[in-house]
Amino acid sequence: MIHEEVSTESRARRTLSGAARVLLALKLDGPLAIGLGIAAAYGLVVLYSASAESLPVLLRTGVRVVLGAVVMLALARVNPNVLRRISPWLYGLGVLLLLAVATVGHVHLGAKRWLDIGPIHFQPSELMKLAVPMMCAWYLHERPLPPRWGDLALLGLIILVPVALVAKEPDLGTAMLIGAGGAIVVFLAGLRKRVIAVLLLIAVAGVWLGLRFMHGYQRERLVSFLNPQADPLGAGYHIIQSQIAIGSGGVFGKGWMAGSQAQLDFLPERTTDFIFSVIGEEFGLLGLAGLLLVYGFIIGRSLYLSMQGPDTFSRLLGGSVALTFFVYVFINAGMTTGLVPVVGVPLPLVSYGGSSVVTVLSGFGILMSLYSHRKLMG
Amino acid sequence: MSPVRIKDHWHEQRLFDRRALFAGVLMALAGLGVLARLYYLQIVRHDYYTQLSQANGVRTEPIAAARGLILDRYGEVIASNQPTFDLVLTPDEVPSLRGSLARLVRLGLLQAEDIPDLIRTIKSHQSFDTVPIRLHLSDEEVARFAARRFEFPGIDISPRQARWYPFGPLAVDAVGYVGTISANDLKHIDQAAYAGTAVIGKTGVEAAYEKQLHGTNGYRQILVNALGRPVQRPGALGRELHVEPPTPGDDVILSLDLKVQRVAESLLKGHDGAVVALNPWNGDVIAMASSPSFDPNLFARGISEKEYRALLEDPRQPLFNRALRAELPSGSTIKPALALGALTDGVIDAHQTVLAGYAYHLPGSAHLYHNAMHEYCGPMTMRTAIIMSCDVYFYRLAHLMGIDRISAWLPYFDFGQPTDIDIPGELPGLVPSRAWKATHFRNPAQRKWFPGDTVILGIGQGYFLTTPLQLAHYTAMLAARGLNFRPRLVTGIRNARTGKIHWKRPVLQGNLTQISAASWAVIVKAMVGVTTQPRGTAYFQLRDSTYPIAGKTGTAQLVSEQAKGASNEESYKAKGTLEKLRDDAWFIAFAPADNPRIAIAVLDEHAGWGSTGAAPIARKVMDAYLLGPDGKLLPDPGRGPFSAPARLRARVLPGVSATLTPLQAAARSNGPPMSSPVPATETHKP
Known about the structure:
The complex is a heterodimer. Chain A is mainly alpha-helical.
C-alpha cells in the first residue's frame, strides 16, 4: 500500500516534471502562459456575445490568438542577445515603415495607418510598440545607470520620432502607448526624481500645446470626458452608454448574451474598444473583477520575471512589457468607466480586431525569452 | 571633465528592483482605483443605470381598448367595432418602391395621382416602420390583393378595430359619432390614457359617455435597438418585458327603440325636420331623429376634407341636429301651457264662453290680430279654443295673463332652459320677459316691452323659441300631469368584464303640483278633442286611431331677425308681413290619452300647417311604438325605469342570456316601480 502511494505520487511528480520539461524546452513560463491563456479564452467567450454570435469574428480572433501564440513561442526561443542586437535595426525599419505610411499609406476612416503588403493590411505602429522599448533598452544596456542628461536627450529623440509619426496618422492612442513603452524603460532605468519632475512639467506644457493643435475629434473626446452630458447624443454618447452598460450590470451581470446595452447596439464599438463594458454588463462586477485579477496576475508575474533578468537589456525590456500591458488595461478600463478620456486603446487579449493580440503576445514571448535564457547569459 | 562612470551591475539591479516595486505599488493602487470606480457604478449607482438601460432598450407600445358597444333598449347594436383592413408597407422590405406602387395602381388599389405624395410620406418614415398606404380596404379589395400578395414583398394587409355603425345614419343625432382626436380634444383628455386610441366621441352618447365607452388602454413593452427598430427575437432579453392587457370599454344601453327610430327616420326622409319621442314616466327617449342626416361611419373611419366640406356646405345642413338645436317659435303648441297657467292663476275660467270673432285688438289700439287663416272662431270655451286652435281666444288670454305671468309660467315646463338631456349640444330656446327685452336690445326704443309682444306670445309667436326636444319634454309633462323627468338616452351601463348591468334611475326634476286635477282634465280633454272632434285641427289625420291621442298642432311663422328686431309691434307686424314667411309645422301628442306611454313632438320645416305636415308623422311613430303586428294596442308594459314591453323579440344582449328576463329582472330590482304620481326620487327643480 505504501509502495503504491509513493508510486502514484511519483507518477504525479513525473507528469508535472514532464510538463515542466516541455515548458523548459519551449522556453515558456508556465504560470504566465496559463494567465494569458485564461485571458484569451475569456475574451473569446465575451466576443461571441458582443459580436452577436458571429462565428466569423470568433474564427478570425481565434486565428489571431493562435498566430500570436506561435509568434510568442518562436520569440521565446530566440536568444535575447540576438534580440538585443537586432533592436536598432528593427527600430530603424519601423521608422522607415512609418515614413512610408505617411507617404503612401492606406487611408481608412480618415486615418492613414495601414500599409498594404499584398493582401495584408499592416500597421507599422504595432511594430513600434515593441521596437521603441527594445531600442531604449538596447541604448541603456551599455551605459551606466541612471541615465544622464545627454542620454535622456537621445532617448527622447528615439521615443518622440515614432510617437510624432504615429500621432500624425492620426492615432493618438497608439502614439501614447508607444511613448509610454519608451518612457517606462527610461523610468525603470532609474531616472532621477528631479528629472521626472522636470519631465512632468514639460508634459503639462505638452498637454497644453496638444490641446491647441489637437484634431477636432480628439478635443471633443476630451471635452466630453470632462462633461459627457454636454452632448449626450454626440461625443458624450460613448461614455454615457458605456457607463450605463457597466452600471446596469450590477454585481452579477445580466447574463451572457443578455446585456441589452450591448445586444441592442446602444453600446458603440462593443467588440473593440468598449468590450470591457460588455463584460461589466453581462458578467457584472464579479466578471470584471475576475478579469482584472487575471490581468493583475499577468502583470505581477511579468514584473517578477523581468526582475530575474540577467542584464540591463532584459530587465528594462521585460519591465517595459509588463508595465505597458498595465497601461493598456488601465486606460481601457479607465475610459470605459469614465476615469480617463476616451482614447482608442483596446483591452489586451479580449478586444476584437487588429494585430494587437499578436503584438501583445509577441511582447510576452520576448519576456519569456529573456527569462528562460537567463542562465545562458550574465 | 566628468569622471568616467563604470557600470555597477549590483547597483543597477537594485535600482531596477526598487523602480519595479514602486511601479508595482502604483499599479496596485490604480487597480484599486478602477475597482472603486466599478463599485460606484455597479453597486452604488446600479439602480440608476438599470433605469437608464431600461429606458434605452424598452419601448412601451399602447394597446387600444375595444370601445364599448352602444345598444338600443332591446340589445340591438347601434355602434360596434369592426375589423377594418389597411394596406401597409415596410420600406425596408420592398425591393422597388416605385415599381410596387405602380403595380398597386394597376391593381386598382391606389390612385396614380396619389403616388408622389405617398412616396414622400413613406420616405419620411424610418425604413423599418410600417406605413399605411391605403386605409379601409373593402372586402373585395382585400381579396384582390390577397390573391397577388406574393408579388408584393414588404406590402401587407393590416387589421385594426374601427368604430362601425351598422345602420349608418340611423339614430346618429342621439348616438353621435366618433372621430379622429383633434388638438382641441387633447386639451380635455388625459393624453397618457389615450395613447394608442385613434378616435374619441364627438357628439351624442359617444361624447357624453366617452369615459365609460373608452375603457382602459393596455400596453406592451417591446425591445428596440439603438436605431429604434423593434427586435424580432429578443431571446434572453425579452424575459422581463411586461404586457398589460387593455380593459374594454363598457357597453351603453340606450332607451331608444330602434324599430320606432327607423319609422321616424323613414317618415322624415326628404323633409327637413325632427322627431323626439319620450316616455312620460321616466324621461326615456324612445326615438330622436333629425333630418336630413348623415352617415357617422364617414367620421369613424376618418372623413376626407372633401367629404367634410360637402356636408358643411350642404344647404339642408345634415350636420345640424334639429332635435336638440333647432330653436323655433312653437306656434300654437304652446297654448296648453298658457291655458294651464291661466287656469291655475285664476286669470280665466275654463268654462266661460268668450266670443272670439275674426280678430282681436288691444284695448285702445286699432291693430287687429287675426286668426292664422283669417277664419271666424265664434263663441269659445277654453276646450273649444284648444280644439280649434283659436288664435283670437289666446291673444286675449295672453293679454289677460300679461307678460310677467307668461314668463313665469313657461319655465315651469322647462322652456327657455336646457332639459338636461344626457347628451351634449342642446340649446335652451328663449322665454322672453321684460327683463330679457330690457337687456337684449341695443336700441333703447326696443328695450321696452309692448303689450303687442304679449299678445302674439299667446299663439307661440314673437320672441318665444323652443326646440323639438323641449316641446317633447313639455308634452311628456302634459302626459304625466306635471311630472318632470329629465330626458335621457342612456338607461344602463353594462360592465364589459363582469357583464353586469348598472341601471340608471330616472331623475325626477320637478312636479307641477300647483296645477289642479280639474285643470289637467280640461286641457287633456281638449287635446283629445283636437284629434277626435270634427272641428279639431288634427281630426282628419288622426280620427281613425285605435287608441285615443291627445295632441296639439302648431304652425311656426318664421320671420327674419331683422323683422323681430323692429322697434315696435306695429312695424314688426308690418315688416313681418313683408318677409317671406316660412311656415314650419309642429305637432305634439301623447297617447294613449287615458294612460299615456309616449309623448312626441314632430317638427316638419316648411310643411305648412301642423296638422297636415307633422300630425301624420307623429301618428305613425306612435303606432310603431304602441301597436302590435296585428294592429291592436300592445299591453301596457308598466312604468318601470326600463319598460320592456312583452311583445319584444328576444334579442341577445351580449353576455346576457338570450331571453330578456334578466334585463327586466334587473330593471325591476334596480329601479323602483314607477307609477304616477310620484315615486321617491330626487327632485332637481322646483
